[in-house]
Amino acid sequence: MTTVSTVITVEEQAKKAKKAAKTLGILTTEEKNQALLTVADALEKDYQSIITANLIDLKNGEEKGFEQAFMDRLSLNKDRIFDFAEGLRQVAELPDPIGDVMSGWTLENGLKVEEVRVPLGVIGMIYEARPNVTADAAGLALKSGNSIVLKGGSSALNSNKAIVEIIHRALALTSIPKEAVQFIDSIDREATQQLFTMKEHIDVLIPRGGASLINAVVENATVPVLETGVGNCHIYVDRVADVEKAIEILINAKTDRPAVCNAAETLIVHEEWLKKNHSLLADALQKNGITLHGDEAAASLLPDVQPATESDWANEYLSLDLAVKTVSNLEEAIDHIDEYGTKHSEAIITENSDTAKKFMQLVDAAALYHNASTRFTDGGALGFGAEIGISTQKLHARGPMGLPALTTRKYLMSGNGQVR
Amino acid sequence: MTTVSTVITVEEQAKKAKKAAKTLGILTTEEKNQALLTVADALEKDYQSIITANLIDLKNGEEKGFEQAFMDRLSLNKDRIFDFAEGLRQVAELPDPIGDVMSGWTLENGLKVEEVRVPLGVIGMIYEARPNVTADAAGLALKSGNSIVLKGGSSALNSNKAIVEIIHRALALTSIPKEAVQFIDSIDREATQQLFTMKEHIDVLIPRGGASLINAVVENATVPVLETGVGNCHIYVDRVADVEKAIEILINAKTDRPAVCNAAETLIVHEEWLKKNHSLLADALQKNGITLHGDEAAASLLPDVQPATESDWANEYLSLDLAVKTVSNLEEAIDHIDEYGTKHSEAIITENSDTAKKFMQLVDAAALYHNASTRFTDGGALGFGAEIGISTQKLHARGPMGLPALTTRKYLMSGNGQVR
């Protein structure tokens, strides 16, 4: 495929998505739900074709020597595909945000004003290996009345293609035009870059993946971006933290799923608490196989602490490593989070509710926790229903993004000749 | 001033703003209101110093041969300055959005979740000639708990500086740190460009001014942008439009204030309606001194129609010019708006409520009107209180932006040891 033909293709796909969005945006909830259920059934019925395609991706991945964790995320089986279908059925059950009258009033001159929730239009989704995003993102987009342009990672190209083929065949039987789901069938980086500037046809870009993917989109896109996911999360154990809660929460936040964005990466600990409780803490950390990188004070009280560098404070480990920073008061803890946090999820463990309140007021992040694990920052866990990602930006959406994050509003004014 | 020292200065200013935002963000409503009233009084008391500075700007402007409309916007007098003060008093009376609990619930495990409204942090305001923006934007930012970095047009540099000096002297007597209002005292374009990429210190950029300023910010900023203002607004007069309403609304939307963004620029008119009503329409247009640029059908029915070019359909006149496009049905009208509209304000005049409903559903814009003038798209007119601009984007804020547009949210979770 030459570059020129790719240019034409991606733009044409985006245009088709835009056109389909007009039809999709005014469908009834029933029509959209019916379509999602039809796609769910089709994924289960034709799961074998996805597995066949996935085997090709896995073989290519092996030849390229991808690491095990990556291959795990890429790998599909019957259960995982049936989970996609179940996810779509759950999205069908979520309340439809479109058409909600968010507010309404009448001006003195009789002009009626209504603020109504409407779809964004076309969502551009740029993601890495996980093929489940293909089905999940399409489901959330369609339910909220949006078309979607999918650009998945090249390593999952065959799997994604097989999933989209099933979605297209199923949509052909429904009220949703199949052009509402566009898949960029290319491993060309340029195809991704074209999406960055298609302001005419794409209303928002959502990158999901590692920091370098997200940064590339944020730096280069003129289309508005919903920034997701990098979570350099801290647990601050205060001077008067309950020992049992502190250790249980820290271990949970670090070890429950180390590779996800709401896992803890740094323990900030009050020096007095650490002096009192270092042996209990050390036991728990050791028992859970956690590798420590700390400052001098931490190294003097805990065993096997490697000296922490700037990189330990700044980066997500996404592994069983933990940075340990000791502080002598709340302000030092907050300053550290200000400097290194990614505005995702931050927790304080303390029995002093004034200190907790101060922490939650002064730390700038999407989710703040008092005496609970950062692992709850998740659409499902917090009761939002399915999520399209976790926003670490402040505009439009913050924290787990459910269906309302994929909408905007219109002000509708009805009059009988009002002028100013 | 060398480039190097400017670089240091702008970044240092942004850092100071960020630091001040921490203090400002947790002030009480009373403290913020008191500060606004103190600034309002100071502007009235010291108005003469602003007028003196403004005279320098006006003299420079004359020497540069700026056109009259520009000089009008630049020019200040006692009344206008007292209006700034009155504006601040009005902002003090608006409800404080900060601290609002937008939603709250408790999970089955007992974890309490609260969604609380908080300030964005630091707002970067980039604007052109009007010095009133200096006082207005500062007032809205401070009331919503945000610091602001102001970069005004070079032609108003002295006026803006005088206003900010008064604001700073007044804030020194209040709970709001004066560092919360930063003014970039430079006519260097590079100073503006530095703001574009200061993601660490600035949370949002709001450009206010002409299309070229706004595009420069949108194209080049990595800081998130709230896009404001370009309004290529249409009035669609349907086949069954009431003649009186249609003409009154069109004349109002075109002539009430031709230079503002919610003024009408194009009349889209159903050919049958035009055939029936062209002479009444022509009379009204002529009486109001409106110059027409139209397609062939319009030229055949209305007097003195210049042939419309692509530029007539695409650009804001901001004058008493009007483009006229004839169509044979609603779909053609919507297609024209889709192609040339700027998603600001669009109106349909019709006695057919089904047609009106379809128009309001299918046209993608912030504000849709049925039988009313587009001139109502304005924070004051629609009852939002003061506005910081009119958003023509879909993310975060759409239409007139009042105080809530300058806020974001935090999710606060309170537990007693919950883990996943």
TrEMBL record, chains A, B:
Aldehyde dehydrogenase domain segment(s): 9-287
Major location category of this protein: cytoplasm
Single Gene Ontology BP annotation: L-proline biosynthetic process
Top-level class of the enzyme under EC nomenclature: oxidoreductase
Annotated localization: Cytoplasm
EC nos: 1.2.1.41
Entry keyword set: Amino-acid biosynthesis, Cytoplasm, NADP, Oxidoreductase, Proline biosynthesis
Protein's pathway: Amino-acid biosynthesis; L-proline biosynthesis; L-glutamate 5-semialdehyde from L-glutamate: step 2/2
Reactions it catalyzes: L-glutamate 5-semialdehyde + phosphate + NADP(+) = L-glutamyl 5-phosphate + NADPH + H(+)
Any one GO CC term of the record: cytoplasm
Gene3D superfamilies linked: Aldehyde Dehydrogenase, Chain A, domain 1, Aldehyde Dehydrogenase, Chain A, domain 2
Coiled-coil ranges per UniProt: none
Domain of life of the source: Bacteria
InterPro entries reported for this sequence: Ald_DH/histidinol_DH, Ald_DH_C, Ald_DH_N, Aldehyde_DH_dom, G-glutamylP_reductase_CS, Glu-5-SA_DH, GPR_dom
NCBIfam families: PRK00197.1, proA
Family that this chain belongs to: Belongs to the gamma-glutamyl phosphate reductase family.
Function, as annotated: Catalyzes the NADPH-dependent reduction of L-glutamate 5-phosphate into L-glutamate 5-semialdehyde and phosphate. The product spontaneously undergoes cyclization to form 1-pyrroline-5-carboxylate.
Protein known as: Gamma-glutamyl phosphate reductase
Provenance organism: Mesobacillus persicus
Recorded name of the encoding gene: proA
